């Protein structure tokens, strides 16, 4: 359970890191949604990580549009 919470927390940090700034003023290279500890995180990597999290959490993954 703790591992699952840590995974969700890490994903949240990565997603929020990618939300800063507009695309016109962004200093990120094309296709990069965030830089974490000097490492570029691409949209493809983020989507893969989210899919793995969904599979590992099975039915406990929050449903889009709910308060979870």
Pick out its properties.
alpha+beta; two-stranded antiparallel sheet; 2 helices
| Largest sheet entry | 2 strands, antiparallel
The gyration radius over C-alpha positions equals: 13 Å
Helical coverage, percent range: 40-55%
Span between N and C termini?
Answer: 17 Å
How much strand? 5-15%
Structural class: alpha+beta
Low-confidence stretches: none
Distinct helical segment count: 2
> What do the pLDDT scores average to?
75
Walk across the major sheet and give the strand order: 1-2
Question: What does this protein look like?
Answer:
This protein has 68 residues and is α+β, with helices and mostly antiparallel strands. The protein is 46% helix and 13% strand. The protein has two helices and two strands, in the order αββα. It has helices spanning 2-17, 43-57, and strands at 32-36, 39-42. The chain has a two-stranded antiparallel sheet with strand order 1-2.
């Amino acid at each position: 359970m703790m591992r699952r919470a840590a995974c969700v927390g890490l994903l949240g940090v990565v997603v929020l890191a990618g939300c800063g700034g507009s695309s016109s003023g962004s200093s990120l290279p094309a296709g990069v949604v965030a830089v974490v500890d000097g490492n570029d995180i691409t949209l493809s990597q983020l989507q893969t990580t989210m899919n793995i999290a969904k599979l590992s959490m099975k039915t406990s993954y929050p449903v889009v549009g709910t308060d979870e």
